[in-house]
Description:
The protein has 248 residues and is mainly α. The protein has helices at residues 2-18, 25-29, 49-75, 81-85, 88-93, 100-121, 136-145, 148-161, 209-212, 216-226, 229-247; strands at 166-173, 178-185, 196-202.
Amino acid sequence: xxxxxxxxxxxxxxxxxxxxxTPPTVAAQNLPLPPLPYAYDALEPYIxxxxxxxxxxxxxxxxTDNLNKALATMRGDPELKHLAKMGIDKLLQHxxxxxxxxxxxxxxxxGGYVNHDQFWRNLSPNGAGEPGxxxxxxxxxxxxxxxxxxxxxxxxxxxxxxFGSGWCWLCFNTEAQTxxxxxxxxxxxxxxxxxEVIIALDVWEHAYYLKHQNRRKDYLEAIFAVLDWQEAxxxxxKVLHDATKEDL
Length: 248
Ligand SMILES: [Fe+2]
């Protein structure tokens, strides 16, 4: 194996020098593990470093690897190539176009890939507080839930009510122009139902068990201590902006 590896390396170097190297197309097309936007210990003491490391480097990496396997299978099939080119966000919105033999893999691992990236970016060591005064998110929350406390009550009840492994979401419906709290099982994404994700909360036990054990309520309180309202507001503003462009 080592000899073969050295041969591949030497061939690539020689190829580059002579201009005949074939680029490693499959590896180059693989989606990378989305990076955390902060250090593994940045959310201490609310979310512990060990949980963050395992969650990102093991769980999120596994979803990434398995999604890449599904995409490689699609790229290798002339009838499915167009699906691989869609991009994972769009693919999750068109799961019915994925053949049954690959649909579960895309739904579970593609969902896991996207959901976790949204989740990491919803958290921040500079989070907590509340949506900015006069922000789009503050207005939308008041319109849909009456108040921030009203939203937190609905969101908390939904989060605690998720049976087994799943997610709790704050979503925006562009047709109804309202926010709603949604829950999904496993790695299902509300984008598959045409909703826009404003806040993603992972309520799989792997997200909190090392520190909070079975106490999901404690985990939820910890999340509110590091929730990045600015990121949530930025997502809503982008959705509203994009919807305006589509109307023009
Ligand atoms: Fe997770």
